[in-house]
């Protein structure tokens, strides 16, 4: 159990999630020096400590109450939870919020020349993986039996060296599979980073800190997905222009100094704003179309 009233957050020390996590915390206004080698970094302007560890250790640290919160991939989280359940170790946690980075999928991949005829053609085969629990659960749910060999890295080489028939590994672009002569045949789990929290209620001081931090995290996430759109539109085309705007937000219509024929239209779009929409707006006589990133929103 953590001994202080400072909120302790576990994050990946170095790897694919560490930069995004660090940026998120900084954009939430946390003043923190993560450049030195200390594993426990103090946030100077909020009662928060950041513990920098391996990603695979984060779920256990949160489930055991050593850290109050953790930022980790759903793949690691689910694999750890299944492993602990199997060993009768506490696997409780709360997913506080899903984050919009670290996206990937856990997939089954076979050598290019493998004749894939659906999931049943994988029955009895052997897979190299870092995720044996997720693999076994998927096999059970699909009525097949698979063997596995545990590899923590370079999983992709296993079929080539005769260690396994296929692999069960994370994929994002698919370039690694292609480079190793493998084809993706089944997606078994979709993953993103999540903010997780210990299942034990926090003391009032820590809860107060979390109540301040969480809306900031959600604001940063929302801002990342949102765009501020500004344009000049013909006054008699306001209805058509508004109907082209993405999202449910009502645009703000403002007069333009010295122009009776044009108005300024401003809107925050939480959905993708496509080139096609810009071209349609232009065809309606709109000009000075600006699409800008939003830094924060509350
Ligand atoms: O910190 P620790 O060493 O314990 O964890 P780790 O070894 O899993 O760290 P890291 O940094 O490799 O991954 C951290 C987390 O990033 C993962 O748990 C996922 O939640 C997420 N993530 C997102 C990925 C990928 N995308 C990803 N593409 N993790 C790994 N990969 C690897 C994959 O294993 C394969 O080797 O990238 C390769 C495939 O990438 P593509 O783009 O070629 O398909």
- What radius of gyration results from the CA coordinates? 24 Å
Number of helices: 8
Quote the average pLDDT. 94
User: What compounds sit in this structure?
Assistant: phosphoribosyl ATP
The number of strands is 15
Q: Give me the CATH superfamily of the largest domain.
A: Periplasmic binding protein-like II
Helix content: 25-40%
β-strand amount: 25-35%
Q: Strand order of the main beta sheet, please?
A: 2-3-1-4-11-5
Oligomeric assembly: single chain
Overall number of structural domains = 3
The structural class is alpha/beta
Q: Note the overall shape.
A: flat
Unreliable stretches (pLDDT < 50, length at least 5) are: none
CATH topology of the largest domain: D-Maltodextrin-Binding Protein, domain 2
Major sheet: 6 strands, mixed
Reading the helices and strands in chain order gives EHEEHEHEEEHEEHEEHEHEEHE
CATH class of the largest domain: Alpha Beta
CATH architecture of the largest domain: 3-Layer(aba) Sandwich
N-C termini distance: 32 Å
Describe this structure in words.
The protein has 298 residues and is of the alpha/beta class. It has 8 helices and 15 strands. Strands 2-3-1-4-11-5 form a 6-stranded mixed β-sheet. A 5-stranded mixed β-sheet has the order 8-7-9-6-10. The two termini are 32 Å apart. Bound molecules: phosphoribosyl ATP (PRT). Phosphoribosyl ATP (PRT) binds at residues 12, 15-17, 54-56, 73, 75-76, 102, 104, 169-176, 191. Phosphoribosyl ATP binds next to helix 3, strand 9 and helix 5.
């Amino acid at each position: 159990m953590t001994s202080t009233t400072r909120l302790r957050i576990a994050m990946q020390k170095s790897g694919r999630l560490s930069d995004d996590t660090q940026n998120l915390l900084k954009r939430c206004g946390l003043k923190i020096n993560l450049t030195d080698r200390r594993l426990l970094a103090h946030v100077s302007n909020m009662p928060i400590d950041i513990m920098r560890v391996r990603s695979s250790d984060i779920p256990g640290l949160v489930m055991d109450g050593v850290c109050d919160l953790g930022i980790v991939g759903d793949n690691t989280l689910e694999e750890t939870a299944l492993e602990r359940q199997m060993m009768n170790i506490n696997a409780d946690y709360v997913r506080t919020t899903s984050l919009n980075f670290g996206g990937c999928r856990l997939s089954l991949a076979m050598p290019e020349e493998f004749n894939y005829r659906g999931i049943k053609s994988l029955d009895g085969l052997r897979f190299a993986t870092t995720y044996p629990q997720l693999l076994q659960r998927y096999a059970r749910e699909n009525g097949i039996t698979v063997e596995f060999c545990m590899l923590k890295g370079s999983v992709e080489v296993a079929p080539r060296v005769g260690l396994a028939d296929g692999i069960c590994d994370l994929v994002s672009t698919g370039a690694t599979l292609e480079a190793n002569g493998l084809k993706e045949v089944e997606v078994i789990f979709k993953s993103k980073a999540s903010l997780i929290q210990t299942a034990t209620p926090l003391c009032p001081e820590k809860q107060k800190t979390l109540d301040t931090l969480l809306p900031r995290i959600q604001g940063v996430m929302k801002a990342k997905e949102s765009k501020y759109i500004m344009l000049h539109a013909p006054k008699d085309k306001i209805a058509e222009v508004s109907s082209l705007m993405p999202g449910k937000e009502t645009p703000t219509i403002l007069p333009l100094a010295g122009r009776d024929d044009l108005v300024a239209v401003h809107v925050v779009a939480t959905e993708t704003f496509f080139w096609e929409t810009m071209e349609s707006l232009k065809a309606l006589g709109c000009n000075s179309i600006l699409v800008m990133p939003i830094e924060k929103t509350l």
